[in-house]
Amino acid sequence: MAKISVIGSSSMDLVVTSTKRPGAGETVLGESFTTVPGGKGANQAVAAARLGADVTMIGRVGDDHFGQQILRNFEENHVRIGYVKPVTHMESGTAHIVLAEGDNSIVVVKAANNEVTPAYVEEALDAIRSSDIVLIQQEIPAETVVYVSEICAKYQIPFLLNPAPAREVEKSVIENATYITPNEHEAAIMFKNMSLQEALRKYPHKLFVTEGSNGVRFFDGEQEVVVPTYKVEAVDTTGAGDTFNAAFAVALADGKSLADSVKFANRAASLSVTKFGAQGGMPTRREVEEQL
Ligand code: RIB
Which reaction does this chain catalyze (predicted)? Predict the structure, then answer.
């Protein structure tokens, strides 16, 4: 069983569905309001656990009702939470999501996730060192991403950076990462002084650019490869990227080839969008294998 450490955010998603997305200064009437567990880190941890990995989450929640619900959700999904400690006198992270016109818009308030500091992560060094792969995203402080990239390089632990949400990334993090999985927008910000083609060639076998329904693009050392996605009827695309990253990490840790790992991840991500909520449609391993 693949051992995976996920270092990242755990939040509560506050989701409103509406037929119309409000513009600046506009008020629209919504249809429903739901709270579901989310946060890119937590989503990736839950997705990897459903796919059969032994997952340790390294994150933080607030000492509030959302924090308790987030912890319970981890337990229900068999994610280890010894390193998800509540922060005293601070709220849990929240994501304010509008689902409208076939897509989402999200505002994230990081709150307790800001306390996923390098010093805090250091407490989990043993878990990190015994991992087959480490997954990290960008809803936690940038210095933590730098720190984790350094310890993974030092101990030669494969390290997958999902650079979402978009921000500029230290060059050392890019060099230390084993795999980087931006979407096109995130890639443009990370590699702002080069074209996408140049970036792909500079980082063969490392840079995997997710291009929505077009598929996932990488450079295999000789040519650009595009692994196509699967067409499905999407109910809610929130968390599809997280499912992709988790499934990619699980497949890589299992020893699948790069192309097969992307294929497995694309299949898992396509299943994830068929149900409501970031984690609602995340598939089990059996469900992915049946579809493959
Ligand atoms: O990637 C989807 C996630 O992004 C949501 O669950 C929300 O929490 C935001 O952080």
Answer: D-ribose + ATP = D-ribose 5-phosphate + ADP + H(+)
Helices (H), 157-254: 171-176, 184-190, 196-202, 240-253
CA of 97 to the centre of ligand 1 (A): 8
Q: Which domains does the chain have, with CATH numbers?
A: 3-9+40-92+112-291 (3.40.1190.20)
Q: Among positive and negative, which fits the CA dihedral 271, 145, 126, 68?
A: negative
Q: To test the ligand 1 pocket, which listed residue (13, 139, 276, 282) has its Cβ within 8 A of the most ligand atoms? A: 13
Q: Which two tokens stand for residue 52?
A: 């059969």
pLDDT tens per residue across span 131-140: 999 999 999 9
Q: Which of 217, 210, 206 is nearest to 269 (CA)?
A: 210
Q: Which atom of ligand 1 is closest in space to residue 139's alpha carbon? A: 10
Atom number in ligand 1 closest to CA 278: 6
pTM check: above 0.90: yes
Residue 109 Cβ inside 6 Å of ligand 1? The answer reads no
